[in-house]
Amino acid sequence: MSATVYKNYINGTWVASSSGETFENRNPANHDDVIGVFQRSNEADVKAAVDAAAAAYMKWRLVPAPKRGEILYRVAARLTANKEQFSRDMTREMGKILIETRGDVQEAIDMTYYMAGEGRRLFGMTTPSELPNKFNMTVRQPVGVCGFITPWNFPMAIPSWKMMPALICGNTIVIKPATDTPMSVVNLMKACEEEGVPPGVVNMVTGPGGSTGEALMNDDRVRIVSFTGSTEVGRRVSTACAPKFKHLCLEMGGKNVIIIMNDADLELAVEGVLWGAFGTSGQRCTATSRVIMHKDVAAKFTSMLVERAKNIKVGNGLEDSVQMGPVVNQSQVDTVLKYIEIGKADGARLECGGQRLTGGAYDKGYFIQPTVFSGVTRNMRIWKEEIFGPVLGMGTFNTFEEAIELANDTAYGLSASIYTRDVNKAYVAMRDVYTGIFYVNAPTIGAETHLPFGGTKETGNGHREAATAALDVFSEWKSIYVDFSGTIQRAQIDNAD
Ligand code: UN1
């Protein structure tokens, strides 16, 4: 049976790339399973998509926001109706287990409903004027065409984090999904198409980051670029956008830590670390990749954790009993295995895992054992560098102050957590660990859509996704002064004695 060919979505129609070239999308848990064939787009396709988005913008920005919201409500309902199918497609295309892909689609549903509701808010403010008979207010205005470059680890959730706030604010969009996960964005586009998002308002071009992604961020008409991915690529995106002062929202790497205090509920913390480190095979920006333990509980906690990590069932995420799927592609396998070797060479102790899984069905996919290192210290590369795989590094501390210092000893600042029963220490950690997200007695993953999402330092560039914070990315403030005095009134600053 030949695989289905999926086209680009431009101006409300499905069109083949003018390159005439395509690429295959295969299941990382089973190479024999072809999800589909997708367009290898080029600059001309991107230009056509931006043409469509720029033309549609002229109308979409004038559609009343509550009406835009009504369309988004319908899109959310459609995503809900198709949730199971979309989740299965997603597990097939990027490997994470069904429970997690259902969560991914749910996150898109939540974000779509949330932003649909914003259609009736999008609050600005009114504030008194210094002068009599004068009215002051602020309104949000859309920015224009948005270009999105989205990752494979949250193939529908992250596109929705960018799309839905952009649309409710009145912008139009062109999205380039990750090469490993175009199917989930095709599904998102279909939901938009079926529920009446007007032609040109959302557009999708599939293809590699090099040709397609760069064409998108280099098009002058794209006024906002939103990118989620590695810090290395984010730096290139940032440089490309700088000369034109494009608005830019970056969500990049993490080296997220869990602090285990000596008064922690260790059973609870084991559950949290397992989920934080090995959920999505460790391929979340928010994944727990460092654990630091108070020396009094370090030995006990390490053995409790390792015992459980060894028994995680790895396999095809479509099977119910599987707890961890494959990593996404060969290049991730290479990176993860390379870091395991680096960890050993730097003197960390391999407690469990460390190998690619082979034999039987494993030979058809990219499976790596859940891997735990202990004795990890701040000079080691596995302490500092993002691995983005099922590899956890564990270290120790003597005092709470040292724990805070070690937690902050990273170039990144996305998420962090503390397990403790001491409320005072919890509050100090909440205040002093410099990240965009912080958890108490919970792992570093699991952010909710109505709170701002993003990080400090090299994780981001000061913006936040999700919540009303996303509206600040996708709109610009306009301050409006209405003088109804009928006279020329000079502002107070121009009237100074
Ligand atoms: C990511 O890995 O880029 O907080 C996003 C979480 C998820 C989102 C992760 N809701 O773990």
What does this structure look like?
The chain is built from 15 helices and 21 strands. The protein has 497 residues and is of the alpha/beta class. The strands form six sheets. It has a seven-stranded mixed beta sheet with strand order 14-15-16-13-12-18-19, with helices on both faces. The longest helix has 21 residues. 2-aminohexanedioic acid binds next to loops.
Q: Helix count, per DSSP?
A: 15
- CATH architecture verdict of the largest domain: 3-Layer(aba) Sandwich
**Largest sheet geometry:** 7 strands, mixed
The total tally of domains equals 2
CATH level 1 name of the largest domain: Alpha Beta
Main β-sheet, spatial strand arrangement: 14-15-16-13-12-18-19
- Low-confidence segments, given as residue ranges, are none
Shape call: globular
The hetero compounds bound to this protein are: 2-aminohexanedioic acid
Secondary structure class reads alpha/beta
Helix fraction, binned, reads 25-40%
Kindly report how far apart the N and C termini lie: 85 Å
Kindly estimate the percentage of residues that lie in beta strands according to DSSP: 15-25%
Mean pLDDT: 97
Query: Oligomeric form of this entry?
Result: single chain
What would the CATH topology of the largest domain be? Aldehyde Dehydrogenase, Chain A, domain 1
How are the SSEs placed, and which strands pair?
Blueprint: E1 8-10, E2 13-15, E3 22-27, E4 30-39, H1 43-60, H2 65-81, H3 83-94, H4 98-118, E5 126-127, E6 134-142, E7 145-149, H5 157-168, E8 172-176, H6 182-194, E9 202-204, H7 209-218, E10 222-228, H8 231-241, E11 247-251, E12 256-260, H9 266-278, E13 288-294, H10 295-310, H11 330-345, E14 349-352, E15 371-374, H12 381-384, E16 391-397, H13 400-407, E17 412-413, E18 415-419, H14 423-432, E19 437-440, E20 456-457, H15 469-474, E21 475-483
Parallel strand pairs: 7-8, 7-10, 8-9, 10-11, 12-13, 12-18, 13-16, 15-16, 18-19
Antiparallel strand pairs: 1-2, 3-4, 5-6, 6-21, 14-15, 17-20
The structure holds 2-aminohexanedioic acid.
